[in-house]
Amino acid sequence: MSMARGLGWAAALALAALLVAPVVSLAFTAAEGTGELWPHLAAYVLPQAIRDTALLLAGVGLLVIGLGTGTAWLVSAFDFPGRRLLDAALLLPLAVPTYVVAYAYLDLMHPLGAMQSGLRAMLGLTSPRDLVLPDLRSLPGCIGLLGFVLYPYVYLPTRALFLMRAGSLLEAARMLGAGPARTFLRVALPLARPAVALGTGLALMEALNDVGAAEFLGVRTLTVQVYATWVNRSDLPGAAQIALVMLACVLLLVGLERLARGGRGYAGTGQRERPTARRRLDGWQAAAALGLGSVPVIVGFGLPAGYLAVSAWRRVNSAGLPDTLLAEAGNTVLYAGLATLVTVALGLMIAAAPGLLGRRSGTALIRTAAVGYAMPGTVLAVGLLGPLALMDSGLSVLTGAAVGIVGLGTGGALVMGYGMRFLTVSVGATEAGLARIPRTIPDAARMLGRGRLATLFSVQIPLAWPAILSGALLAFVDIAKELPLTLLLRPLNVETLSTHLYGEAARGTYEDGAAAALLIVGIGLIPVILLLRLDRDAGFRRG
User: How many other CB atoms sit within 10 Å of the CB of residue 177?
Assistant: First the structure.
């Protein structure tokens, strides 16, 4: 047993070293800059980038808390015609990457776009100067778009808590005479604090990782500055220095999320939890509830997805599909598929580590695997350059070949970056699947003479395969939608759907990128459907 634990700790340390290597590499790369570089960044680049990033995160945080908590309470505490459909539809914005939404709205809200043209026609106006809407290319515009796309990160855990944990307490509050508003403010909201904090932290991580939407909308965040400094100015040390500032922001977000949760958790009573009793709404109240609840769905999914469908149809009818679309879709599937295989294989072994190598070392492995997901794609990409170069040098010595094998500009670098970034997605799903298997089943296999590894492959994996498959699908979709890592680590002259869309938006040729954007949305619908299926199987929908 001591030897197994030793191997477990060794594996945990090796994985930790692999995940910490980008951070160490960032520090060394940043130190390579000239003495004049940091004063320039501190005087002209970082102040605006930090200000824009802080304002963006603050605005997005407030918006996702309001939208996510409000919609979760609406579908949990009230019953009205269309509630079940709204309950499912509120997850749909998860299917649309933030940069796709920004891409769609830039064309929709252009002075000559469909939205402003339609409003002028309704009002009988002919000149674009007669109706001027607020410019979407602004910090408030970016906050609004990101908030309406990312609110499901708060909605999902908060809704689950209201449905599964709050029933008895809310019923007690009503029996003591508290009205709906007081029950929400004094009981439901404090109870939901850990779930809201967790969802908000995830949403802010996604907002910090965003590069496409912020750049399209003219917001110079830290992420955008890392990309611009490296790619546009060919200044890698400067990009590394900005990335270190970003890493500090990530640590601050993690600390704030833990502080917001206040160390709180939930203790069960040992009895089956009572579901929340919903208050019935009819007439104008039901119509108002359905209308208000539909606004985030329409803004975050309906309008951009509808625009993309219409634009793609027009593009196909007039000029056919882009010649490169098939190859770009193939590249997307190829690299996302390879990275998914890596994450699923590693995720399976890490999730099974507590049973194979001991609980302490296995838990250490699981916690270490989450480090990569906490790093924004741009930070991870810059930090991987040094370790990848060292790996290439070592492989060149062993093979005698001078050509890079896994370094910058190769598919190996992209697959490795994807794997490190999304490893925790597969680990979490697989761990949950293995945890649902009664301990008596693997114990019986062990008593019949099977070893730990044989029990895992012949007994536990066949029973946990739905969860493993769901983790694979979630990882595949996240990888296929990832933009920052793909932009910075993709092989030379290789385009994916996300980079194709980024290029079309940069050139302003929105209609030519509509088909690629629609394919990305279609891929994003996979986890939403999966979540709805799991939600139904878990029995969250009651009446």
Answer: 8
Three-state SS for 271? coil
What is the CA angle 478-484-489, rounded to 5?
100
For residue 335, give the nearest of 410, 385, 244, 272 by alpha carbon.
410
- The DSSP letter of residue 112 is T
> Where do the domains of the chain lie, and which CATH numbers do they carry?
1-28+319-535 (1.10.3720.10), 33-265 (1.10.3720.10)
Q: Residue 316 pLDDT > 50, yes or no? A: yes
- The per-residue pLDDT for range 426-468, each reduced to its tens digit, is 888 888 788 778 778 877 877 877 777 777 777 778 888 878 8
The string of pLDDT tens digits covering residues 205-216 is: 889 888 888 888
Q: Among residues 540, 143, 104, 82, which one has the least CA distance to residue 294? A: 82
Residues 267, 168: contact at Cβ < 8 Å? no
Q: Characterize the bridge pairing of strands 78-79 and 279-280.
A: parallel
pTM beyond 0.90: the answer is: no
Tell me the pLDDT tens digit for each residue of 144-186: 999 999 999 999 888 877 776 555 556 555 665 666 666 666 6
Burial 279-310 (b: 16+ CB within 10 A, else e): eebeeeebeebbeebbebbebbbbbbbebbee
> Among 481, 81, 61, 71, which residue's Cα sits nearest to residue 298?
71
For residue 450 the two structure tokens come to 């099977």
Helices (H), 262-376: 283-297, 303-319, 325-351, 353-357, 359-369, 371-374
CA distance 163 to 76: 6
The rounded distance, in Å, linking the Cα atoms of 131 and 120 is: 7
Could you give the count of Cα atoms lying within 13 Å of 402 in the half-sphere of its Cβ?
0
> What is the pLDDT, as a whole number, of residue 409?
64
Phi-psi region of 320 (alpha: psi -120 to 50; beta: other; left: phi over 0): left
